[in-house]
Amino acid sequence: MLKNLLIQGGRVIDPATNFDAVADVAIANGKVLAVGAAPAGFVADETIAAQGCIVAPGLVDLCARLREPGQEHKGMLQSELAAAVAGGVTALVCPPDTDPVLDEPGLVEMLRYRARSLNQARVFPLGALTRGLQGEVLTEMHALTEAGCVGFSQAEAALANTQVVQRALQYASTFGYTVWLRPQDYHLGKGVAASGPFATRMGLAGVPVAAETIALHTIFELMRSTGARVHLCRLSSAAGVALVRQAKAEGLAVTCDVSINSLHLSDVDMGYFDSRTRLTPPLRQTRDRDALRAALLDGTIDALVSDHMPVGEDEKALPFAEAEPGATGLELLLPLGLKWANECGVALPQLVRLLTAAPAALVQSKSAQGGPGGLAVGGVADVCVFDPQAAWVVGADTLRSRSHHTPFEGYELLGRVRATVAHGHLAYQVA
User: Which of 75, 83, 229, 293 fits as disulfide partner to 330, beta carbons 3.0 to 4.6 Å?
Assistant: First the structure.
């Protein structure tokens, strides 16, 4: 049974409805009953004191790997969805590179069923663009969409065959599907660090900026000929940002996101082969980081993502070039977003929009519960209550993810979630 909840006295920021004021939020039967004064006769079963806190829609993360099925030693639905609600994330997009790959409707339905049974954050899967992510045969996109996929992706498996990309975009365009691609050339993207003086001094195989820009040129040319809609995942370079800006000015149906890692770090943060900074895409130069920060500010980049990728202890305890790329991020999305906003002079409502309404608009969901990203009366109650001034130190004892590997370990960050309501259920609360 869902309780009646009253979130009392917080500053409510809902970019989807342009609401920004100190108000109460009343929740009943899993829905937002009122924003402001609760209606007559409403009796709260539980009250959440939110004085001094921000009350926002639940965060929407466009890139979070949950590692189940197939890689449970790195993360499980239970642990990673617990990390999600602890970070205020109530809806997340899951790439298809599980084991087995999400290329069959039954696998998608099983994942969604398991996620729903945990009653925490909602999971929106991406279906595999090609069978087994092998880049050869297209999947049954219609069947996967009916099973609950919100788009189609190759995850980190770059496509070598341009004809396959063209056919995929043609098919997706015909039915209005979105293709999610990380722009990386198949042949140039096989290094372990960003090409540049630092990687050269360290003796690490480099990934040049051209790996991103060549892929972008190809994608945009195929978009022009097919009319497809593409979401670009985790831009990493200044040159890539410039190309996306041109494509948007041209009118192409393209959106994009950036990882919290690329937004704050550069290649010099790798230090002396710190495997915690072994990431995909690799950390680039300071000028690239600065261009990404500016592009998020001016709207060229549409959303900020955690790029949550839990990695096992054994896979990280290896020399840098052999270590598995990835880092935990679900619980860091909000505080690192706040860090960017504070450093760049970004108003809090703009940051909340980048973490809620903006990414929610990119999720093509047919969910009967309604889409995420807002606090509209009558809509599903996904709410994040956070204290933007609360300081905490990132470490194994403060993270709920099964994996604690992050380049930000030891950082003191501002911004801590006090309570998370996921589809009307109080999924997380600080005692």
Answer: 83
Residue 324 CA to residue 247 CA, distance in Å, equals 33
pLDDT tens, 110-159?
999 999 999 999 999 999 999 999 999 999 999 999 999 999 999 999 99
Of 16, 44, 111, 78, nearest in space to 359 by CA: 16
Token pair 């054994």 is at which residue? 314
Three-class DSSP category at 247 = helix
Chain CA centroid to CA 125, Å = 12
Return the ∠ at Cα 252 (arms to 250 and 258), rounded to 5°: 105
Cβ contact 320:326 at 8 Å: no
What are the structure tokens assigned to 132, written together?
């087994």
Burial label for 21, CB within 10 Å (0-12, 13-18, 19+), is exposed
CA–CA distance, 70 with 73 (Å, rounded to integer): 9
pLDDT category, 74, cuts 50, 70, 90? Answer: confident
The residues carrying an active-site annotation are 307
C-alpha dist (Å) from residue 427 to 58, 81, 84, 383: 11, 10, 10, 10
d(CA 118, CA 21): 33
Residue type, 79: S
3-state secondary structure of 157: coil
For residue 331, pLDDT beyond 60: yes
* Dist. CA 412–CA 266, nearest whole Å: 19
Please give the Cα distance from 73 to 383 (Å, whole number). Answer: 30
Pairing status of strand 122-125 against strand 193-194: unpaired
Q: In 133-147, which positions are buried (b, 16+ CB within 10 angstroms) versus exposed (e)?
A: bebeebbebeebbeb
For residue 400, the model assigns a pLDDT of 93
Its pTM stands at: 0.95
Centroid of chain to Cα 373? 13
Task: State the DSSP code for 131.
Answer: G
CB half-sphere exposure, 144, CA atoms < 13 A? 28
Residue 374 has phi, psi (to 5 degrees) of -150, 175
